[in-house]
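Q: Here's a chain of 349 amino acids. Please give me its 3D structure as tokens.
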Amino acid sequence: MARCIGCGAALQYTDPKKPGYAPKEGSRYCQRCFRLSHYGDLTVSMKKGIDPDEVISRVDAMDCIVLWVADLFDFEAGMISGLSRRLPGKTVILAANKRDLLPETLSDDKCARFVFSRLKEMGIHIDTLILTSRDDRDSIEEIRKIVAEKAGGKPCAVIGRANSGKSTLLNRLAGSETLTISRYPGTTLDFNELQIGEQVYIDTPGIEIEHSILMETDENDLKEIVPQNTVKPAVYQLKGDQSFAVGGLARIDLMGCEKASCVFYLSGRLPLHRSKLEKADELWEKHYGEMLKPVPLEKEFTVSKKHKDSDKMDIVIDGLGWACVSGTVQTVSVHVPKGVSVTYRKAML
């Protein structure tokens, strides 16, 4: 069976609306991959429909080591619950990716300490951690060397949540643009074997980011939401009751602020609107979908509340970014689309 070398889907020549379609036999890429690579045009959405349990089960059944790729900017969404339990006995190398999106004020040592701390809290064990980014050739060589040492001739399965950058990382390891990459979740559709030097790597479908805002928005809006360059912190001094609207995607209300600040780490293309809390509902109702955009596919929102109990606390919205609140803030209230996760953690920065 012929497969698309870009996404791994079985090639078929009859149904343009299904994965793997190619207009003529003998094609190396399906039409979807060709249009994604050349025009950024998504012809078939596969952000939902790939069974995450099946991906992990297939990797578990393989005699392989694992290269787990996680997005440092969207770290909480990139975690795979119960990973150590679901892949017992597997050597796991974590490539903490997109280091270049984080502010330069965050040192590599502090970043690594943050990662290990969060992994410990989640009960996930890894063998090796490597921080990597788009232009970091040294980290690519480090990954290549450690994979070869740990694999001992076995293949290396590359896993990660959708949009973690697995295929991009493999292209950099291979020194080519063979695999299809895009901002859209679900770009890789099936297991895809690559021979890179003497090492066999297996690209796997991105594990669905079930509780991310990326799954609740129109894919045409992803260019506004997913950062492409280093995130620039947006700093606000706080007093009294304040509210911030992140486009029409989320709202963060901060009550009882005194000598406090809030620093946002978001895509630079997302609009951020500040108001007094007493005006927040009026602003939202009047400007939702106009000034406050982009908006999610469904308008139903849920509210998460938290009493601030540490000096510096991150409010993380899966797929969107985070806000770091410091100083005296009594209560935090976060409005997000139904199904989107909000995490309160010790500050990364």
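Q: Can you summarize the key feature?
A: The longest strand covers residues 250-266.
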